[in-house]
Design a protein that fits this description.
- The complex is a heterodimer of chains A (245) and B (546).
- In chain A, helix 3 crosses helix 4 and helix 3 packs parallel to helix 5.
- In chain A, the strands form two sheets. Chain A has a six-stranded mixed sheet with strand order 6-7-8-3-9-10, with helices on both faces.
- In chain A, a hairpin with a 2-residue loop joins strand 9 and strand 10.
- Chain A is globular and about 55 Å long.
- Chain A is 32% helix and 25% strand.
- Chain A is α/β, with parallel strands linked by helices and 245 residues long.
- The two termini of chain A are 26 Å apart.
- In chain B, 44% of the residues lie in helices and 13% in strands.
- Chain B is built from 14 helices and 13 strands.
- Chain B has a six-stranded mixed barrel.
- In chain B, strand 3 and strand 4 form a beta hairpin.
- In chain B, helix 2 crosses helix 11, helix 8 packs across helix 13 and helix 10 packs antiparallel against helix 11.
- The radius of gyration of chain B is 33 Å and the shape is elongated.
- In chain B, 33% of the residues are buried.
- Classes of the chains: A alpha/beta (245), B alpha+beta (546).
- The interface between A and B is medium-sized, with 28 and 22 residues.
Chain lengths: 245, 546
């Protein structure tokens, strides 16, 4: 089920998404750094479409530009050229404030290093995206309780990140990413710091979320992890080698 | 917001050393600034603690041949003027005066226990009630008690009454001798009468005697009086000035020597504040510089700390936190510390003010009135609020929304944004600049003090002790003052003794144990011959009076 939401609306409202139109679309996206008199390109002429409900794995050797591409999709990076459309919104033409509003509304991000806030409990870490979306406190309590229950970490809600294992921390990271019910989850090497069992748990969780309708885009080195998805985009030296438009 | 405060407290508990440094620094800075502000406010702004103080004025006279009236001179009015003003100035409800300047006179009190030198004022009848004095016992002067030939009355201060007479009620009606004149104690002023604190820089005033309004005593010299008037509700200072001009012209027709004299009328608080303004503002400016340095130091500390939290702030931005939302969080963090610091600072200001008031070398009018009140607390709250806003925005210098990715990578960069680096450098430069300014200023003041201490007074002071002794307290024998040593004044290991009168114009030779070459006198004043010294005939005759 796909859900609608506004910046302050309840997160359980249905979202109006056309399943036939790309959720995310990149055309001619490039990113480079000045080096001496020239430029060093990280991404060249990237063109991809990601449809609603897809589970896409972005793969490639180190330095191919995978994480850079993911962070551009997640709007963590604004120093690029080209066109980026998210649910019909021309991100490339929007000011920073509008981009931030769309990012907050539609995108959840899972980091390789978990990036939990050490001075917040598990409960507070998961609740944080909701509070930034101006959701009322009573609603937040209800949603976070539901997420804790779904992820089986109710007993750990008052613990701090340094009291959790790596797998548990990443579980919390995933919970934080989905608590606001985003249209798409971007995951940057979500199992990179986990051992295989914990990694499998996380990937199976992603699979379940995808089955429930959440679009997932992951960066991974692991062929095994890629099998959980239904599409692979391969990058090499900043170019889309396979799986683009 | 409560949740943000709770989170903020939790954040600081994790770094108690830094939190402690910040709180202590803020307490010292805010405490010192609040003290200085309280002094400045009490001395310069707060109305004088007299009834209807806004209508009280100084009337001063000045010689137009030597002055343009810009300088305030308190004891500049003459009896003839005062007597005339009492009769003719309709702009004033009341006129009061005391003899002399802003320093009380010295009187000798005898006839009630041991003789004692006390400070006091000669005042006209209206002065005390005009300034809000109420009797704690007995009464104040009534009309006519400052007239020629009236029975001599004296009003005691509350402090002197307690100290000398043990607060006894039967002091009313008791005779005492003031400067060899019998007086009757008619009353005691209440303890809270603020005359001394407000107009005499808290110099003690032990008693009040009537200033006799005798026009005949005012030839071309006469009394120099300090005059205060209370304007009528429907009169203005301009009207009073106009009336004084008219009266001065009339007075000058009778006394041509007073022709160049003019008057000025100023609100009572004006000259009081003017005397202290430069010192108070210098104090406030210096302390404000100290606070600025403390804040710059703290800003640097917090910038460094914020650098360590840069990834956290970038992450929060990536999770959807707006700049305003992050500012609220950092504001809550700084508010927690500033609240503790400001509270400690206000608490520190109390002892600082008490120390200032007790310091006898601090010569500021109205210092006794300085105390922590709601204005001081509001000032501390204001300083705290500004500090909170400044410190709350410091961590945001490290948020770079355009490039969140850099911090969010697993091995992301840790270099601070350029603006954060510039802010750190600015804070450091500002701190150094203010510190240099204060150090140079302090050095110049110390140098001036050293120069003052090195001034050669023209005589040797090593081993010399000075003391004031009242000759009238000695027993007279045959109409002559006895030898001071025979009266029990012993000076072990002293080799010479010199006596002078109050004006030090007539230093006498030294009777008693002297070195060879100085004259000696016995109790009857006979001169003992000394070898090796010739003395003038006038000097011998004067010395024989001993």
């Amino acid at each position: 089920m796909l859900f609608r939401r506004s910046s302050s609306a309840a997160v359980t409202e249905p979202l109006d998404i056309n399943p036939n139109s790309p959720l995310m679309s990149l055309r001619g996206v490039e990113k480079s750094y000045p080096v001496g008199a020239g430029q060093s390109y990280v991404l060249r002429r990237v063109a991809i479409d990601i449809k609603p409900g897809e589970f896409v794995s972005i793969m490639g050797p180190s330095g191919a530009g995978k994480s850079t591409l993911l962070h551009i999709l997640g709007m963590h990076d604004s120093a690029w050229t080209g066109e980026y459309t998210l649910m019909g919104h021309p991100i490339h033409a929007l000011p920073t404030k509008d981009r931030a509003a769309l990012q907050k509304r539609h995108i959840g991000f899972v980091f390789q290093s978990y990036h939990l806030l050490d001075n917040l409990t598990v409960y507070e870490n998961i609740e944080l995206p909701l509070s930034y979306r101006d959701v009322k406190r009573s609603e937040r309590q209800s949603v976070v309780a539901d997420v804790l229950d779904r992820f089986g970490i109710v007993a750990k809600k008052d613990l701090y990140p340094n009291q959790l294992s790596g797998g548990q921390q990443q579980l919390v990271g995933v919970a934080r990413a989905i608590v606001a019910n985003p249209a798409v989850i971007l995951a940057d090497e979500p199992t990179g710091n986990l051992h295989s069992d914990q990694g499998r748990e996380i990937m199976e969780l992603f699979k379940r979320l995808n089955d429930q309708g959440t679009t997932i885009v992951q960066v991974t080195h692991s062929e095994t992890n890629a099998t959980y998805g239904n599409r692979v985009i391969k990058l090499r030296d900043g170019f889309i080698e396979q799986g683009g438009v | 917001m409560l949740h943000a405060v709770s989170l903020a407290a939790r954040t600081w508990i994790r770094t108690p050393a830094l939190a402690g440094v910040v709180v202590v620094t803020l307490a010292l800075g805010i405490g010192a600034t609040t003290t200085a502000f309280t002094v400045a406010y009490s001395v310069l702004v707060q109305p004088l603690p007299f009834p209807q103080a806004g209508r009280l004025t100084w009337i001063t006279s000045y010689n137009t041949e030597f002055s343009n009236g810009a300088e305030f001179v308190d004891n500049s009015n003459r009896m003839a003027q005062f007597l005339d003003w009492q009769q003719s100035l309709s702009s004033f409800d009341q006129l009061g005066a005391w003899s002399g300047t802003a320093t009380p006179e010295v009187f000798t009190v005898t006839g009630a226990g041991a003789a004692e030198r006390v400070s006091g004022l000669q005042v006209t009848q209206q002065l005390l009630p005009m300034l809000g004095a109420v009797p704690a016992a007995g009464r104040l002067f009534v009309k006519g008690e400052d007239a020629v030939g009236a029975p001599a009355a004296v009003v005691l201060s509350h402090n002197y009454w307690q100290r000398r007479f043990g607060g006894r009620a039967d002091v009313i009606g008791q005779p005492i001798t003031v400067d060899n004149e019998p007086h009757t104690v008619i009353g005691v002023v209440s303890a809270d009468f603020p005359l001394s604190a407000s107009l005499f820089a808290a110099a003690p005033i032990d008693l009040f005697v009537p200033l006799v309004l005798d026009g005949s005593s005012d030839a071309d010299f006469g009394y120099f009086m300090t005059v205060i008037g209370r304007l009528r509700p429907d009169a203005s200072i301009e009207q009073a000035r106009a009336q004084l001009r008219v009266r001065q012209r009339a007075l000058a027709e009778d006394r041509p020597t007073m022709a160049p004299i003019a008057q000025k009328v100023d609100p009572l608080a004006g000259p009081v504040a003017d005397r202290a303004r430069s010192r108070v503002l210098l104090l406030f400016g210096g302390v404000a510089c100290v606070l600025f340095m403390a804040c710059a130091n703290l800003a640097n500390l917090l910038l460094v700390r914020a650098g360590g939290r840069r990834r956290e702030m970038q992450l929060r931005a990536a999770l959807g936190a707006s700049t305003g939302r992050m500012f609220r969080q950092t504001l809550a963090e700084s508010a927690v510390l500033v609240a503790f610091g400001a509270a400690a600072g206000v608490g520190l200001a109390g002892p600082l003010i008490r120390t200032l008031r007790a310091a006898t070398w601090v010569d500021l009018p109205r210092l006794a009135e300085v105390e922590i009140g709601w204005t001081a607390i509001a000032f501390a709250v204001g300083v705290g609020a500004v500090t909170t806003m400044v410190f709350g925005s410091v961590p945001l210098l490290h948020v770079r929304r355009r490039d969140l990715m850099d911090s969010l990578r697993p091995h992301g960069g840790v270099t601070a944004p350029r603006r954060a680096i510039h802010s750190q450098r600015f804070a450091l430069a500002a701190q150094v600049a203010v510190a240099v300014l204060l150090t140079v200023t302090g050095g110049l003041l110390v140098r001036s003090l050293v120069s003052l201490l090195r001034v050669d007074p023209g005589f040797r002071t090593e081993g010399v002790v000075a003391m004031r002794v009242d000759r009238q307290s000695w027993i007279f024998r045959n109409g002559r003052h006895p030898h001071p040593r025979r009266q029990g004044l012993r000076f072990p290991r002293s080799t010479s003794l010199a006596m002078g009168d109050g004006d030090q114009r007539d230093a006498r030779a030294s009777p008693g144990d002297t070195r060879e070459g100085s004259p000696r006198h016995d109790v009857h004043g006979e001169r003992q011959p000394q070898a090796g010294r010739r003395r003038g005939r006038r000097r011998q005759a004067r010395d024989a009076q001993w």
